[in-house]
Amino acid sequence: MVKKEINFRLFYKVTYALLIVLYLNGISSALSIEVYFSPKGGCENRIVELIDAAQSSIDIAMYTFTNSKIARALVKAHERGVKIRVLLDGQERQNRYSKGVFLEKRGIFVAYDRMPGLMHNKFCIIDDSIVITGSYNWTATAEEKNEENLLVIHDVDIAKTYKNRFEYLLKINVPWWIRILKRP
């Protein structure tokens, strides 16, 4: 009887461990995360590569955006027909190095945060399936001098969560008539 009980316990433990391994294996195969660091760790190049590969949409919520190389990649994507929407912190309106006006002049939808406090988000959703996020602002300083991190997450469910947040941020910052008139 004791031997039978030990065998059942062992069976349950092994089965439980196997189920956990299978579950985690399923998660890891469905979710892909790339990790980058700066300075000079490939963040800027990876962002540009992902923008260049975009097929349908790019939504960006960025605290500070002064990086010319990334801005030019967005313009090229826009010219290919990719729908692009950018939300920047309100202070970017007065930042003479901000790429907000540069993008607007080229027909890209750009909005500025109007809420109290900082719009300190740093994320981008590409084709509703890839999320770029981390401490990395889209600036030359972030690429060349700062200690920053960047995650590239390939997951539709996570992208949907970020997309919902982006839509909420647009809704609270951009009056409905402007969202309709400036719809990309």
Short synopsis of the structure:
With 184 residues, the protein is α/β, with parallel strands linked by helices.
What does this structure look like?
The chain is an alpha/beta fold and 184 residues long. The chain has two domains: 1-30; 32-181, Endonuclease Chain A (Endonuclease, Chain A, 2-Layer Sandwich), CATH 3.30.870.10. Helix content is 47%, strand content 22%. The protein is built from seven helices and seven strands. The protein has a seven-stranded mixed beta sheet, with helices on both faces. Helix 2 runs parallel beside helix 3. The N and C termini lie far apart (72 Å). The model is unreliable at 10-19 (pLDDT under 50).
Question: Which helices and strands occur, and which strands form pairs?
Answer:
Blueprint: H1 2-30, E1 32-38, H2 43-53, E2 57-62, H3 68-79, E3 83-88, H4 100-105, E4 109-112, E5 122-126, E6 130-134, H5 140-144, E7 148-154, H6 156-173, H7 176-181
Parallel strand pairs: 2-3, 3-4
Antiparallel strand pairs: 1-7, 2-5, 5-6, 6-7
Helix pairs in contact: 2-3
Biggest sheet layout: 7 strands, mixed
Average predicted confidence as pLDDT: 86
Fourth-level CATH superfamily of the largest domain: Endonuclease Chain A
The CATH class assignment of the largest domain is: Alpha Beta
What's the arrangement of strands in the largest beta sheet? Answer: 1-7-6-5-2-3-4
Class by SSE composition = alpha/beta
Instruction: Give me the Rg, rounded.
Output: 21 Å
Strand content: 15-25%
What count of structural domains?
2
Number of helices: 7
List segments where confidence is low: pLDDT < 50 over at least 5 consecutive residues: 10-19
Number of beta strands:
7
Query: Considering DSSP H and I runs of 4 or more, what fraction of the residues is helical?
Result: 40-55%
Q: Ends: how far apart?
A: 72 Å
Give me the CATH fold name of the largest domain.
Endonuclease, Chain A
